[in-house]
Amino acid sequence: MRSLFTACLLAGLALTAPAAQPTEYHIAAYRSHADFAVRLLWVHTINGRFTQIAGQLQVDPRGLATVDARITVDSLVMDSARFRRWVLAREFFDVAQYPTVHFVSDPIALTRLTTGGVLDGRLSLRGVTQPVRFELMPAVCSTISMTDCVIEAHGIVSRSAFGMNSHSAALSDQVQLGLWISFDPTTD
Question: Which CATH architecture best describes the domain 4-187?
Answer without folding.
Answer: Beta Barrel (2.40)
